[in-house]
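User: Predict structure, ligand magnesium ion.
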Amino acid sequence: MLPTIAVLGRPNVGKSTLFNRLVGRKIAIVDDTPGVTRDRKEAETRIAGRAVRLLDTAGLEEAAPETIQGRMRASSEAAVRESDLVLFVVDVRTGLTPTDRAFAEWLRRQTVPVILVANKAEGRLGGYAAMEAYELGLGDPVAVSAEHGDGIGELHDAVREHL
Ligand code: GDP
Ligand code: MG
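Assistant: Predicted complex:
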């Protein structure tokens, strides 16, 4: 069984963009799981030279705003249960939201190791904006731009320390 890494975070932070960036074009999506996690995608890829199974979580975009945290938790719990490592993604352009904070608080109570990924950190001010993510209490954020590819080498290095 390959080590499993889940990409978690509220809608629109760039989870799927990061998933695609880490998987690359040459690796096919191997599963689209039906059911509660019907939008979940998984793929096998290599990170830091190791073969891993990567999970992209989703399906929350359709949830009513007042229930989004509950829905996110249910879908994330399923992913966390089968994961050896979580990439928790936040968006440095919008900054931290109450949903990010609630999600982070829940994650801190789980036993799974978490790498905090500060996405959309491209450009001159990106690294600076990423520092707000320290507030989440999940350790040093890794500043990346999933869209542009910045910081992906550092993310591989961070993952290597956990595998
Ligand atoms: P998800 O809902 O978390 O899976 O987020 P998506 O991957 O669908 O991305 C949401 C939006 O953010 C899309 O419009 C992406 O193009 C955009 N996005 C993703 N990564 C980046 C990034 O690194 N920089 C910027 N500026 N936009 C990004
Ligand atoms: Mg997505």
